[in-house]
Specification:
Strand content: 15-25%
Number of strands: 31
Strand order of the largest sheet: 5-6-4-3-7-8-9
Structural class: alpha/beta
Length: about 725
């Protein structure tokens, strides 16, 4: 799949046209005037035609009464005609050789059933004719790198060109994004608002931008992910190509009943799934538009990420140093102590009343000695404990009395920054606009990009470090192929709730280690199986549709004699009857040893899989037993997933110290546990579209041995296909 074509659509004709016709151009519409003015102001080198059958002059230019009357076959039409005549306009355009269209016109699927029917007709026609369509109900696009701007809203000038490509599922936010990017001197290579995404989706544009030589960072505003499989494929392709994707994903999917029958559902919230999915794909998720643009701008200026979390900071302010220290901790960044040599050298540079530490406050003496900051930076950047340096500095807002001094100072500082031993990021104290004068100083002196404000800047730094770590993992991993899925064979139709006996039997048949169990239908049979296992044993209720047995007193532990078994059997059946459940059977299992609280905390795990309506089957692993409710400590991964990723998930648990062994308890073999959990995830993935939830709670782990002590599987009545509802 190349830059020119995505899923059969010719994106070069759309985004790189040599000729454009504005269909429905009129002086009565600001959309028409904006689009025409944007194209003319961009310096577009191709032909621009205005089509209007009733007005010979529009926007001071001659018009043509139809597409048929144009002097050439145009590459792109920009459609602004009434909703009811859009389809006919497209038909005429295709008849005359047009291959791409932007539909600005609204009134389609976003308005209801009638509009959706008209949109469906456009979709059918475009697919059958091979027409590439952006929209409808979209603003168009800005290809700043190629000076092509068929875009219906005003574009501030001058348009700052750069290497960040924006793809937005909100036309209303597009102008704000563009304005903020310009105010922070973040250059744009490309921007589009997707409209209704009738034919072309976000993933199509992402794929185009991955191959676009003018784009180094892709920034997304997402309301929904329509094709999560394709999104994942393209995101991994971008990661391996070294192009960061930064995404602001909003909205919440509806979990419905998935949380009702399994602890797992309560642990796997929508945001947790999105975070996990994006992390696995190498997509940096942010929480605000400011962070989207600030992070994208930083990563564009760096040409990627940052080499590690250890930072050395040089500031002229003690207060700023303290804020940076707090925010660095929030973002997982490390402020290491300076080496002895660095401390000595800095002591020779800064005033005697300054304290040499990281962050380094060189004090207000910078007003007297303007070389203080850059000389200190050179030393800090050479410290062996530092992965990258941060210089707190600002671009000037207004001209000084002697502008030559300003240019000299910024020019020398820029050269020193370029020559530091490790990458240096320039960070401003607060988030303010870069003025035209400040931009001219930066352009003239080649001063590096200034990241906007400590608050958002530290978030951006943390994001850049995390992205580099994700890319390192992806680079060391073979290219991902679509997994070969061998379906699981079923003895009976999977439907409803499979309680422990049926679930455990299926798990055991497919190689998952499960505690031995016997289904018994009488006191005598229960006593016989208990004797065969050896005391103590556990007796559990069995009834159709019964989820968590312990909630109704359906589990009896530590049965040490035949009399205990008889009493427990009768008691459990009576409990079932009182609860309105139907059942005359019970499970007998050997009771696994426990040496008290440490054993319970350290060796009981929960492993669950639930179906997310967007991302599909999602794996959760965490501390099990009663601790799943007490600690709610789980790590999330979207299936399919490998052993290494599962191990990383387990290592991220807050309770990992317990698994490593505390107070003399036996440590867990993390590699063995990760392998077992990955096998459970693979098994769940093979169960197919009918699986809604699978929970093993607890999974008992002793050293390197794992064994499922309880299991529950919930099936949907029909195949549950993944769909992007949020």
């Amino acid at each position: 799949m190349t830059k020119a074509t995505v899923q059969g659509m010719d994106l070069r004709a759309l985004f790189e046209p040599r000729s454009i016709a504005l269909i429905g151009a009129t002086d009565k519409s600001p959309w028409s005037l904006n689009t025409y003015q944007n194209i003319k102001d961009s310096g577009f080198g191709g032909s621009v035609y205005l089509v209007n059958p009733t007005s010979p002059i529009v926007h001071g230019e001659r018009t043509f009464d139809s597409i048929a009357g144009l002097p050439e076959v145009v590459d792109l039409i920009f459609v602004m005609v009434p909703t009811t005549v859009v389809l006919q306009t497209l038909r005429v355009a295709v008849e005359h050789g047009v291959r791409a269209a932007v539909i600005l016109t609204a009134g389609f699927g976003e308005t209801g059933a009638v509009g959706q029917q008209m949109e469906d007709e456009i979709i059918d026609f475009a697919r059958s004719s091979g027409l590439t369509v952006l929209g409808p109900n979209g603003n168009g696009f800005i290809n700043a790198a190629e000076n092509i701007t068929p875009y219906g809203l005003p574009i501030g000038r001058p348009l700052i060109e750069g290497t960040v490509g924006f793809v937005l599922q909100s036309g209303a936010l597009a102008s704000s994004v563009l304005q903020f990017a310009q105010s922070r001197n973040v250059g744009v290579s490309f921007l589009t608002a997707m409209g209704n995404e009738s034919l072309m989706s976000v993933t199509d544009v992402m794929n185009y931008l991955v191959d676009d030589p003018n784009t180094s960072v892709i920034a997304l505003f997402l309301e929904s992910v329509r094709d999560p499989v394709e999104f994942r494929r393209i995101a991994l392709r971008a990661l391996r190509a070294g192009k960061p994707i930064v995404a602001l994903k909003i909205g919440r999917s509806v979990l419905g009943a998935r949380a009702a029958l399994a602890h797992t559902g309560a642990l796997v919230g929508d945001n947790a799934v999105i975070d996990a999915a994006f992390e696995q794909m190498g997509v940096i998720r942010v929480r605000s538009l400011e962070d989207l643009i600030t992070t994208a701008g930083l990563m564009a200026s760096l040409g990627g990420g940052l080499p590690g979390p250890r930072i050395g900071v040089v500031t002229p302010s003690g207060g700023a140093s303290e804020i940076i220290a707090d925010r660095a901790e929030d973002e997982g960044l490390v402020l290491p102590g300076f080496s002895e040599e660095t401390t000595t050298r800095l002591g020779e540079i800064v005033p005697a009343f300054a304290t040499v530490q990281n962050p380094l406050d060189v004090t207000g003496y910078v007003v007297i000695d303007r070389t203080l900051m850059r000389r200190s930076l050179a030393v800090v950047a050479q410290d062996p404990n530092v992965d990258f340096a941060v210089l707190l500095s600002e671009l000037p807002r207004v001209p000084a009395a002697d502008q030559s001094l300003t240019m000299t100072a910024y020019g020398e500082s820029a050269r020193n920054i370029r020559e530091t031993a490790v990458p240096t990021v320039v960070l401003s104290t607060v988030l303010t606009d870069v003025t035209e004068y400040g931009r001219s100083v930066a352009d003239t002196t080649e001063f590096p990009h200034v990241v906007g404000g400590i608050e958002h800047g530290l978030t951006a730094l943390g994001n850049a470090v995390r992205w580099s770590a994700l890319r390192a993992v992806a680079s060391a991993t073979p290219e991902e192929l679509d997994p070969v899925v061998v379906p699981v064979d079923f003895d009976t139709e999977p439907t409803g709730i499979w309680t422990e006996y049926r679930s455990s039997e299926l798990l055991s048949r497919n190689g998952i280690p499960v505690v031995p169990s016997s289904l018994v239908g009488s006191v005598e049979e229960a006593q016989e199986r208990a004797a065969a296992y050896g005391y103590p044993v556990v007796l559990k209720a069995v009834a159709d549709g019964l989820g968590h047995k312990s909630d109704i007193g359906g589990v009896r532990l530590d049965l040490r004699s035949a009399d205990d078994v008889a009493e427990a059997y009768n008691s459990v059946l009576a409990t079932l009857a009182d609860a309105g459940a139907t059942g005359t059977a019970a499970l007998i299992q050997p009771q696994r040893p426990s040496n008290g609280l440490e054993m319970l905390v350290g060796l009981e795990m929960l492993v669950g899989v639930v179906r997310d309506p967007v991302w599909g089957l999602t794996l959760a692993v965490g501390l099990g037993g009663v601790w799943v409710e007490v600690l709610a400590d789980a790590a999330i991964r979207v299936l399919p997933v490998g052993v290494a990723d599962v191990r990383d998930a387990i290592e991220s648990l807050r309770g990992i110290a317990l698994l490593r062994g505390t107070r003399g308890s036996e440590p867990v073999d993390i590699d063995a546990l990760a392998t077992c959990v990955a096998e459970i995830g693979d098994f769940a993935y093979r169960l197919g579209d009918r699986l809604q939830a699978l929970e093993i709670n607890p999974l008992m782990v002793r050293g390197g041995e794992c064994e499922a002590l309880d299991a529950l599987i919930t099936w949907s009545e029909t195949g549950s296909e993944t769909e992007a509802v949020s």
